[in-house]
Design a protein that fits this description.
Elements lengths: L8 H5 L7 H12 L13 H9 L6 H13 L3 H6 L1 H16 L4 H15 L11 H4 L1 E5 L6 E7 L2 E5 L10 E2 L1 E2 L8 H12 L3 H10 L2 E3 L6 E3 H7 L1
Antiparallel strand pairs: 1-2, 2-3, 3-4, 5-6, 6-7
């Protein structure tokens, strides 16, 4: 039986830098972070990933930071303390990579990594990805209707159905005033705006704004329902 990468992490990471590096990363993602899940074995990769990120071991620093960011986003206090040294190495690398991103998707992924290494456990855990997907699927806190919050090419609204293939009831979104955002959302908005990611900055005003349910009329904070989902 061929051992999985987690059975011999040192041996797997030793293959980095060769012609099959892409395959190595694929194996690691499949074994340690399959479909975005984090397992107990996943944390064992953090020392190897930190070494790659810092340039002490072969491999792509960007890939190392992305994998480590996902793992760190799921860490509890005990694991965060155990791997504090590795996280301290990864954070400045993640910040440099974030600053270098022109693409909105990559920008959001590295932004989540920065938050994860800083110890933030809500918005680092994949919840910012709706910013580039241009929608969030949530539930109305009053009537429990399934809603789609859209703010992209199809328009800006809350809908109570499939807005792409059907004609559901819709209601307006109420974006937040950037000047009135709470500290973390304000920082995220400022970071995106200063980096020239205007679509992400605008999406953040909808994520941290309010929506009116088209079924019952209740007005509620979008971010609270995203966080609860």
């Amino acid at each position: 039986m061929t051992p999985k990468p987690s059975d011999d992490l040192a041996g797997t990471f030793a293959r980095m830098g060769g012609a099959d590096e892409g395959q190595v990363w694929s194996e690691l993602w499949d074994d340690l972070c399959h479909q975005g899940c984090v397992y107990s074995d996943s944390y064992l990769a953090l020392p190897h990933l930190a070494a790659i990120a810092e340039g002490r071991a072969p491999g792509a620093p960007a890939d190392a930071v992305l994998m480590a960011g996902l793992i760190a986003s799921a860490a509890d206090d005990e694991r965060s303390a155990r791997y504090a040294g590795e996280i301290a190495v990864l954070l400045p690398v993640a910040r440099r990579l974030l600053d270098a991103q022109d693409d909105d998707v990559a920008f959001v992924y590295f932004l989540q990594c920065v938050l994860a290494f800083e110890g933030e456990r809500v918005w680092s855990a994949g919840r910012l990805e709706g910013l580039f997907q241009q929608e969030y699927e949530i539930e109305c806190p009053n009537c429990a209707s399934d809603l789609c919050i859209a703010f992209g090419d199809h328009g800006t609204f809350a809908s109570a159905g499939d807005y792409v293939t059907a004609d559901p009831a819709k209601s307006a979104l109420l974006p937040a005033d950037p000047a009135a955002l709470a500290p973390l959302p304000a920082r995220l908005h400022r970071t995106a705006a200063q980096a020239g990611h205007e679509d992400i900055a605008r999406a953040l005003t909808h994520l941290f704004g309010r929506a009116a349910c088209p079924d019952c009329g209740d007005v509620f904070p979008v971010s609270e329902q995203v966080e609860a989902s």
